[in-house]
TrEMBL record, chain A:
Residues 23-265 form the ABC transporter domain. Coiled coil: none annotated. This is Phosphate import ATP-binding protein PstB. Keywords: ATP-binding, Cell membrane, Hydrolase, Membrane, Nucleotide-binding, Phosphate transport, Translocase, Transport. The gene is pstB. It comes from Nitrincola nitratireducens.
Automatic annotation (TrEMBL), chain B:
Residues 239-445 form the ABC transmembrane type-1 domain. The lineage of its organism: Bacteria, Pseudomonadati, Pseudomonadota, Gammaproteobacteria, Oceanospirillales. PANTHER family: PHOSPHATE TRANSPORT SYSTEM PERMEASE PROTEIN PSTA, PHOSPHATE TRANSPORT SYSTEM PERMEASE PROTEIN PSTA-RELATED. It is found in: Cell inner membrane; Cell membrane. The chain crosses the membrane at residues 40-61, 230-263, 284-304, 310-330, 360-381, 431-450. The keyword tRNA-binding does not apply. It comes from Nitrincola nitratireducens. Keywords: Cell membrane, Membrane, Transmembrane, Transmembrane helix, Transport. InterPro entries: DUF3333 (IPR024573), MetI-like (IPR000515), MetI-like_sf (IPR035906), Phosphate_PstA (IPR005672). This is Phosphate transport system permease protein PstA.
Length: 270, 458
């Protein structure tokens, strides 16, 4: 493994994890119609840590990520079995409202998808929806703090009324992250957030993820192994619907236990 | 370099490439020819279509526009107290009951109804044609018969004009209009002319003296249809009927259609039942409109006992007909909204309803409005189903409620084009078409304006 130059997350800043399990998956299977896309995944995600999901295209990493805030519910033919918990509570339980879940588990998508409204409205939409803000000053505050956290405030503070869709790709994605953190979620799911961005925008987002860890639990799907190495504490390798292995990121990249993991990270397939 | 066009295995790569280049060059010519041919056909088709549109508008406008100007006779009308012998118009006393007052009013109106207003017109004509009274029948053919009721209406409105002389523009008879517009062959023998030789001679004379003139006429817009006084036949009844039906379609078909489309597209589970519904909606859109007329006749008239020839029934039938169009247009516009917007809303914790009503629908609104308005415009131009619910009957009044008898603009066009006095009604039919087309064009313009107004830039 010596040929590959990797920078690891723990070389920059150690993540203060509490050692508490934030989300857990037990024997999670996902079916699209009769086709089983994920074959029983078990995983623990610790509070305030960053977990990267890697694996070749079609391995089920995005599908699994979408199980964590029940986005798969929106697909008619999709069925999920097994158990997923958030703070030891089953998120597929009938008594749990999916709206409440998604306020706790936010999501950032592959393609930046700001609402075709102003930057300001993009941010306040979520807080308004959940009744987190009452007055104009609350809203102004949440807009500023969210944009600050997403590192976008300086760039857009003078044009909060201009449409969010008018920003550049990287700015749009940071706006989407700001929108997600505006509702103060506990977990943020990111589905290949940088795949539509250029390297500079990507590095800004990576720095942002680095900033956010410690306050949020983050699960990120990525195709870019360097990115996984740079931003994550743990890495999970998926292959053909199986979770092949999950462990400390450094461990996965320097000393993979499974043959398939090694083949993938050394570029033999993927 | 080889002249052969066959590629063989012993050739060098350069040779093979050479032959390939030649083949590409050869095929290029054919491809360009194909492209040119296709462009020519396309341009020809567009040109042909445009030519027909131009011909259509040119004929309709050239025929219809003159009908907005009608022959009028300017006369000094003396409201002769010797002819109009009536009591004073009753005024309601404070002690009088309403019924008693109405009775007195009715008696006065009956008295007025017996007044010979033809006499008033004849007297007025005598001032410009000295021998009018000698040829009374010929003289009375100059002014359209409806004008005597117009004079009566003036007196009823304001009895103080009795004894006065007013300069009035009386609408000339339809045949006078035809004659001065040269819409009839002047060389035809007397037996084939609609007007007697005497009348024709007077018309020419009065026209030369400037007493008969073509003036812009409001009769076409203000009057309902008429068969006794053809020159005053107008579109008011049909226009009101059409407007009422249009409103019914707008307030019935559009909300119901949009609501069902939103439900079917966004909320309904995808199963056999919804598939069946979808197939049926698509089929309904293709059902000939006359079938909806049959449905209306049997359900709304025979079963619900709604009145015949009423805009309410027409509106309901046209609503049914427009529903599939609105549903299909709305669904395709909802489908066109990218799923990323829904995901964004759901991901932030919006419920399904919130994601649809806050994000998807506002983006789809311009397209939905356009579809809905085009559906309404289509309904406005529909005549076949209306024939089956009695709206093709002759109605000489303007409806004041949707339950009154009425016709519709397209049906009125159909009725007029079949009128016996072709020379006069050909122009009037075209004028009615102009009115209908203007209404449609304004609706389409409204659709375009709304689309621009609500469009969200991405």
């Amino acid at each position: 493994m010596g040929a590959m130059q990797m920078t690891f997350s723990d070389e920059k800043k150690p993540t203060p994890t509490s050692g508490k399990v934030k989300m857990a998956a037990r024997d999670v299977k996902v079916f699209y119609g009769d086709n089983e896309a994920i074959h029983g995944v078990n995983m623990d995600i610790m509070e305030n840590e960053v977990v990267a999901f890697i694996g070749p295209s079609g391995c089920g990493k995005s599908t699994f990520l979408r199980c964590l805030n029940r986005m798969n519910d929106t697909i008619d033919i999709c069925r999920v079995t097994g158990k997923v918990t958030l703070d030891e509570r089953d998120i597929y339980d009938k008594s749990l409202d999916v709206v409440q879940l998604r306020a706790q588990v936010g999501m950032v998508f592959q393609k930046p998808n700001p609402f075709p409204k102003s930057i300001y409205e993009n941010i306040v939409y979520g807080p308004k929806l959940h009744g987190l803000v009452n007055s104009k000053s609350d809203m102004d505050e949440i807009v500023e703090s969210s944009l600050q956290r997403a590192g976008l405030w300086k760039e857009v503070k003078d044009r909060l009324d201009s449409p969010g869709t008018g920003l550049s790709g990287g700015q749009q994605q940071r706006l989407c992250i700001a929108r997600a953190i505006a509702v103060s979620p506990e977990v943020i799911l990111m589905d290949e957030p940088c795949s539509a961005l250029d390297p500079i925008a990507t590095s800004i987002i990576e720095e942002l993820i680095d900033e956010l860890k410690g306050s949020y639990t983050i699960a990120i799907v990525t195709h870019n192994m360097q990115q996984a190495a740079r931003v994550s504490d743990k890495t999970a390798f998926f292959h053909m619907g199986d979770l092949v292995e999950i462990s400390e990121t450094r461990e996965i990249f320097t000393n993979p236990k499974d043959r398939r993991t090694e083949d993938y990270i050394t570029g033999r397939f993927g | 370099m080889t002249t052969s066009t066959q590629i063989t295995s012993e050739m060098s790569l350069a040779e093979k490439r050479d032959i390939m280049q030649q083949r590409v060059a050869k095929s290029l010519k054919r491809r360009h020819a194909q492209e040119t041919r296709f462009k020519m056909i396309g341009m020809g088709a567009v040109g042909l279509a445009l030519a027909f549109v131009v011909i259509l508008f040119a004929t309709i406008l050239s025929k219809g526009l003159p009908a907005f100007w009608q022959a009028h006779i300017t006369l000094d009308v003396y409201f002769d107290p010797d002819v109009i012998k009536i009591d004073d118009k009753p005024v309601r006393q404070s002690t009088e009951s309403e019924a008693a007052f109405n009775q007195r009013m009715l008696a006065w109106q009956t008295q007025l109804g017996f007044v010979n207003f033809n006499r008033i017109i004849l007297d007025s004509l005598e001032k410009v044609i000295p021998d009018a009274k000698a040829y009374q029948r010929d003289a009375m053919r100059l002014v359209t018969s409806g004008e005597r009721f117009a004079l009566r209406g003036m007196v009823e409105e304001n009895p103080s004009i009795i004894g006065q002389t007013l300069k009035l523009n009386l609408l000339a008879d339809a045949n006078v209009d035809v004659w001065i517009k040269d819409n009839i062959d002047r060389s035809l023998p007397d037996a084939q002319q609609q007007l007697s030789a005497k009348t024709r001679q007077w018309v020419d004379e009065l026209e030369a003296r400037g007493i008969i003139q073509n003036k812009f006429s409001t009769a076409l817009f203000m009057n309902p249809d008429s068969r006794s006084s053809l020159a005053s036949a107008g579109l008011a009844g049909a226009f009101m009927g059409s407007v009422m039906m249009m409103l019914i379609v707008m307030f019935l078909a559009v909300p119901v259609g949009v609501a069902s489309a939103i439900y079917l597209e966004e909320f309904a589970p995808k199963n056999k039942l919804t598939d069946l519904i979808e197939v049926n909606i698509n089929n309904l859109a293709a059902v000939p409109s006359i079938v909806f007329g049959l449905l209306g006749a049997s359900v709304f008239i025979l079963w619900f006992k709604l009145p015949l020839s009423a805009p309410i029934v027409g509106g309901l039938v046209l609503s049914l007909m427009t529903l599939p169009t609105v549903i299909i247009a709305t669904r395709s516009n909802l489908k066109a909204i990218p799923p990323s917007i829904r995901q964004a809303a759901l991901g932030i914790g919006a419920s399904k309803v919130q994601s649809v009503f806050h994000h998807v629908l506002p983006l789809a609104i311009p397209g939905i409005l356009t579809g809905a308005i085009l559906g309404v415009a289509q309904a406005l131009g529909e005549s076949a189903p209306l024939l089956l619910i009695g709206m093709s009957s002759f109605v000489a009044s303007v409806p004041s409620t949707p339950f009154d008898q009425s016709t519709a603009l397209p049906v009125q066009i159909y009725l007029w084009q079949g009128n016996e006095l072709r020379n006069f009604f050909e122009a009037r039919t075209s004028a009615a078409i102009i009115v209908l087309l203007s209404l449609m064009i304004s609706l389409n313009a409204l659709a375009i304006w709304l689309r621009k107004r609500f469009e969200t830039r991405w």
